[in-house]
Design goal:
Number of strands: 2
Distance between the termini: 24 Å
Order of helices and strands: HHHHHHEEHHHHHHHHH
Strand content: under 5%
Largest sheet: 2 strands, antiparallel
Number of helices: 15
Shape: globular
Radius of gyration: 22 Å
Length: 397
């Protein structure tokens, strides 16, 4: 199999999504934030910008899967090696997800460590274990292995001492809702394994896209509980909503391969827009039965955000692949290639800022000025990620 070439529009879509994720994750530091930028409440029938970012990330995760797997097959990886690789990556994300989702619940006194110090050590452990160490001589390789072992010991120690809850009812780490990284891990595991064994049959991939969307509908309609009496409210993770986003991305990649010739570029963009519009229309139809809710992962949310992701990617594809405006996005490209590093940097930033006791003047956290501050902050995080990359500090799983 021929190795698939790198698609820059995918990297740029991922970079923009990460930029927005850092931006919206900083909104908690502000006051007087416009409602349309924030997450909707669980029972609120509303779609804020913050509610669209994670679906777009899962969409682009799905888009990357076909290219990553086909490249590994072209290099000679067997199905067994690919399954091992997929599971290893997923487990890493699940471990990080469990740590990050538990941190807000920490009982500092019982743990013997503040939340800020815990987070600094936690992220240090992540970097020591999953950093991309340069290939070098045997002596330095042993040093790098030693650093990874230190990282493992740090995480084991943190997991051992962690305590949440009240003094009368202390508990250790629990998966909870797995955290953002954990959800990405489960989604990647499911979508990548299914794609690996079905990629030669487009009809099956379309089937799984429809299946997970229908599963989300069935779950919220209460049909899964009838099928599995006494079972949990979510038969599978979010009733398949997250997997539906990933398979939407996989279908987008299939179209990208089918219309890869230059003369077909406008046709491809047109199909992306058409699919996006159809999904958005279906989303508004679904709204007659289910509210728009990210927290509940309703079918309406899934359809609307999938449609938005298709249209968003069409715009990026037009600018990058058709008009060749790659340079427009040069300042954020690191966020598309060092995404995990970019995501974890804020854990250090917020912890160090809290420990230092330094606070920003009130006018920098209010209204429009505050939003500009958060946007600048997102660019700074990406810049720090780029600098770390030059120092050979970059997470890859």
């Amino acid at each position: 199999m021929e190795k698939a070439k790198r698609i820059f529009s995918i990297d740029i879509f991922r970079a923009l999504t990460m930029l927005l994720m850092i931006f919206v994750n900083d909104l908690w530091t502000l006051k007087n934030v416009p409602l349309w930028l924030e997450h909707a409440e669980a029972n609120q029938d509303f779609l804020g910008l913050s509610d669209v970012v994670f679906p777009c990330f899962l969409f682009i995760l799905g888009m990357a899967i076909p290219f990553a797997i086909k490249n590994r097959i072209a290099k000679g990886d067997t199905p067994l090696q690919l399954v091992k690789h997929i599971i290893t990556r997923s487990v890493a994300l699940l471990i990080m997800g469990v740590f990050t989702v538990n941190v807000p619940e920490i009982n500092a006194e019982a743990t013997g460590m503040s939340s800020e110090v815990f987070q600094i050590l936690m992220v240090l452990g992540f970097f020591l274990i999953w950093n991309v160490y340069p290939k070098t001589d045997a002596f330095k390789s042993k040093i790098f292995l030693g650093l990874q072992i230190i990282g493992v010991l740090i995480l084991l120690r943190l997991a051992y001492i962690f305590k949440a809850g009240t003094t009368d009812n202390l508990i250790g780490m629990t998966p909870q809702w797995w955290g953002i990284l954990g959800l990405i891990g489960w989604t990647y595991l499911t979508a990548a394994i299914i794609y690996l064994f079905t990629y030669q049959k487009t009809s099956l991939l379309i089937f799984f896209f429809l299946f997970f969307n229908l599963l989300a509908i069935a779950g919220h309609a209460g049909l899964l509980q009838k099928i599995w009496a006494g079972g949990p409210s979510d038969w599978i993770l979010a009733n398949g909503a997250f997997f539906a986003f990933a398979f939407a991305g996989i279908l987008a990649s299939i179209l990208l391969e089918q219309f890869s010739k230059p003369e077909n570029q406008y046709q491809l963009m047109g199909r992306y827009v058409l699919i996006g519009v159809v999904l958005i229309i279906l989303g508004f139809i679904a709204r007659n039965f289910f509210i728009i809710s990210k927290i509940q992962a309703t079918p309406t949310w899934v359809l609307l955000c999938s449609g938005i992701a298709f249209i968003f990617f069409a715009i990026i594809y037009y600018l990058v692949d058709i008009k060749e405006k790659v340079v427009w996005f040069s300042s954020i490209k690191t966020a598309g290639t060092s995404t995990l590093t970019c995501y974890l940097i804020p854990y250090w930033y917020y912890s160090i800022a809290e420990l230092s006791g330094i606070t920003l003047p009130g006018f920098l956290t209010d209204g429009i000025v505050g939003l500009i501050k958060s946007l600048i902050y997102a660019f700074i995080v990406i810049g720090i990620t780029a600098l770390l990359g030059k120092l050979n500090v970059k997470l890859k799983i």
